[in-house]
Amino acid sequence: MQALRDDVTSRLTALKCQIVEESGNPADGFKIKYAIGKSQGTVILDPVRSAPNSLAAAAPGPDQSAVKLRIQIKEKWFKADVHPITAQIRAQSF
């Protein structure tokens, strides 16, 4: 779960997004708020859960297990550029 959070933040950074706020932990999931240009957004990584092996063709191997992962991406675009400090204040209303 931590590796997934690290991957998301590194991809946002590579896209020149400014990370405005991060919270969470592997057990409860993570929330990452960001701003770039005229947009601000939030990525929510829900905690990984075990998934039942309902499809025989998709059954994991002997050293693997099936999991469920939910990722939510919410982004808003504004007519004017969003300054990171303003984005942080506005992000609290997400």
Low-confidence stretches at least 5 residues in length (pLDDT < 50)? Answer: none
Termini gap? 23 Å
Q: Class by helix and strand content?
A: alpha+beta
* Count of alpha and pi helical runs: 2
What is the averaged pLDDT score? 83
Side by side, the strands of the main sheet go 1-2-3-6
Counted up, domains total 1
H/E topology pattern: HEEEEEEH
What shape does the CA trace take? elongated
User: Can you give the helix content as a percent range?
Assistant: 10-25%
User: Biggest sheet, open or closed, and with what strands and sense?
Assistant: 4 strands, antiparallel
Percent of residues in beta strands: 35-45%
| Gyration radius, in Å | 16 Å
Count of extended strands? 6
Task: Please supply descriptive tags for the structure shown above.
94 residues; alpha+beta; four-stranded antiparallel sheet; two-stranded antiparallel sheet; 2 helices; 22% helix; 36% strand; elongated
What topology does this entry show?
Layout (H helix, E strand, L loop, with lengths): L1 H13 L3 E8 L3 E8 L2 E7 L3 E2 L16 E2 L2 E7 L6 H8 L3
Q: What would you say this structure looks like, in words?
A:
The structure is a single chain. The protein has 94 residues and is α+β, with helices and mostly antiparallel strands. The protein has one domain. 22% of the residues lie in helices and 36% in strands. The protein is built from two helices and six strands, in the order αββββββα. The strands form two sheets. It has a four-stranded antiparallel beta sheet with strand order 1-2-3-6, sandwiched between helices. A hairpin with a 3-residue loop joins strand 1 (18-25) and strand 2 (29-36). The radius of gyration is 16 Å and the shape is elongated. The model has no long low-confidence stretch (mean pLDDT 83).
